[in-house]
Amino acid sequence: MKYLKELLSLVKRNIRDYGMYIALFVIMITFTVLTDGLFLSSRNISNLLDSAGYIAVLAVGVMLVIVIRHIDLSIGFLAGFLGAVAAILMVNYGMPIYVVIPIILFLGICAGSVTGFLVAKIGIPAFVATLAGWLIYRGAILLATEKTGTIIIDNETFNAIGNGYIPAIMEVAGLHFLSLILGGVLGILFYIYSAITNRHKKIKYNFEVVSKPIFVVQLAFMSVVIGYITWLLAGYNGFSWTVVIILAVVFIYHFITTKTVIGRHIYAVGSNPEAAHLTGISVSKITFLVFGSMGGMLSALSGILFTSRLQSATTTAGTLFELDAIAAAFVGGVSAHGGVGKVTGALIGAIVMATLTNGMNLMGVGIAPQYMIRGGVLALAVIFDVMTRRQRG
Amino acid sequence: MSDNILEMKQISKEFIGVKALSNVNFAVERGEIHCLVGENGAGKSTLMKVLSGVYPYGTYKGDIIVNGEILRFNKISDSVEVGIAIIYQELALFPHLSVYENIFVGNEIQYAGILEWNQTVSESEKMLKKVGLKVNPDTLIKDLGVGKQQLIEIAKALSKEVKLLILDEPTAALNENDSENLLELLKELKKQGITSIMISHKLKEVIAIADKATVLRDGETICTLEASKGEITEAAIIKNMVGREIEDIYPKRPNQEIGETILKLSNWTAFDPKLGRNVTKNVNLNVKRGEIVGISGLMGSGRTELALSMFGNARKYKITGDLELEGQPAKLQHPHEAIKAGIAYVTEDRKGNGLFLLQDIKNNISIGNLKEISSKGTVNINEEIVVADQYKDSLGIKNAQYSTISRKSEWW
């Protein structure tokens, strides 16, 4: 009884954080029921995550831009344009992929830095500066693909990024072996190890921690979740490279935002730029950094993922990506007032939006109601956010 | 018997966990100038916000009685309708609009939704005459001084046929002349039958102008003093405001050793490119080790600007003159350089530009010096809690939820 109470109060206190996970869970269960289990099949989940990849990566970037009270509309066409550049470098100039990818990421940082410079140093409103970028990159992608039209990429390594899977090594009972090892064993062990060391550190400092039984329940629950996802994916082709990349991006950016000084400074700038300035934080440096390394570089990565997935660079690549990413970030709980938002939230937001598309496609829902339902979910997510915030006063 | 235009009975108002007003009684007679005095945080502004409908009916307890009738204001326009107008400390004018547009904003002269500009201008001229202000109604607000802006606010109130005018520290930003002008105007309006409530910190003004003065302390009514009985004196007001005899208003000064000059400003002039004028001019200042140096002046006189210009030139003024720290010439280009040099700045507007309201207390305490609790750019959050706890104890920060911070579960 005592533990149940503790669990309930824990959930109640963190309802805002858990809300998205619960929503995602409910949506997934609903689709699973409506499609007679087809939705939760290994193949479909694997597909879903791969199709969400480029938006998830963009959403993480734009989420951070929104946290510091700006917006970036240029990321969509920037992603498309850099994807086209990657294709041209490989196809027309025969450059090896190991050179192309760093070049593209670097170009992304440069493009983002230009936006950052305009916003942070010159003081142009981000909406206008990035709208200009939106037009410029839209023109650039047309220019790049003008002569050839769609550029088909025949580099297998490059195409594997969006379509391939990590090697299996061997199969165990029809399951993808390396994925099982990575996710099922290493993933869970890493989670348990970090949770336990974290708890020990807190105990060493004499801080309150959740009671032992609840802690064990937490560990078991999370292990089951990780294990189940791994098992699902291992049942098809295992972890795709896209999933590996998403996990890496989320892990790195989650670490930066929650554990580092730079992360703290980002949230301080978003929460109150004036106060941040008087605290000795360089607001323009942070703005520069977020637009450059987060907005720009992640758009480049997103462009690589998308181009690789299509195995070609098209004239329309990147269209409306920015709005999908912004929607995902808001579903994931970022606040338009700045200072609030999580990397994990952006990921979940992107998965929620991809789940809706995927689930409704499976059910054969027409494209018109699909847009409306996704719009409704976006509105609902923000309403939930505003309401829970108000409750806390 | 007295003819009360307003009575507030047993007003209580609570903010989450904090009692702002408890059973406040407040009565204003028709045609008087009634001053509301009290220390910061005594509840004066809160009381006036209850009266004007900023806090709607239901969020407070007690009755508001206007002209003998219990009224329930759900929104600000409800109080405007019965002739109550409030002028806030921070003026609510639109700097880029003209005088006449500002006077009739929210109360536009219109026929079927079409604005009647000619009549607006001629009406606003009448209002300007009433407040004794000679300006062209076409003038933009931003081109007027604060004193004149204050008068525009009053003209705006008059255009709404105000019966009861509430002024929240109207003279805080005004110089001697403008203040006197304003007080004269209030007396003039009184003759025309307009009742005024004035919140003020300046006791001389209160003594000069008040028919009655109600003292609030810690959210409670202490007393109402009457001029006709000779009760409004500096001694009486202070005594009731602070709840002590006057002898110990200030704590005793300890004899402190004063050392050598630690900060020296000479011919310090700061030009604000945004405003296009100097915010400080030829300031000379000597601060010795161990001293407390007060910088006083009216609002807008450049106190804050002087502090900010010393604190790493936080507002990016163009500065001429010299700053010496501990005898060495110093050029501080950014607040972080000032912090490094050992200067700290506590802002006047803590909510506006001091604190990160969305973040917890621990983050607010540590943000200025995260380096101390980080290694290789990674913050040691446990160490952070320990440090925050130390400050919490040494500064007496009260917060019930604080201890729960460390408990927040980490599922990720």
From TrEMBL, chain A:
InterPro entries, alphabetized: ABC_transp_permease
One Gene Ontology term, aspect cellular component: plasma membrane
Cellular localization per UniProt: Cell membrane
UniProt keywords, alphabetically: Cell inner membrane, Cell membrane, Membrane, Sugar transport, Transmembrane, Transmembrane helix, Transport
Entry keyword Transmembrane helix: yes
Superkingdom, natural source: Bacteria
Signal peptide: none
Membrane-topology annotation of the record: Multi-pass membrane protein
GO molecular-function terms, A-Z: transmembrane transporter activity
CDD domains reported in the protein's UniProt record: TM_PBP1_transp_AraH_like
Tagged with keyword Transmembrane: yes
Residue stretches spanning the membrane: 21-40, 52-68, 75-93, 99-119, 126-145, 165-193, 214-233, 239-256, 286-306, 371-388
Function recorded in the entry: Part of the binding-protein-dependent transport system for D-xylose. Probably responsible for the translocation of the substrate across the membrane.
Name of the protein this chain belongs to: Xylose transport system permease protein XylH
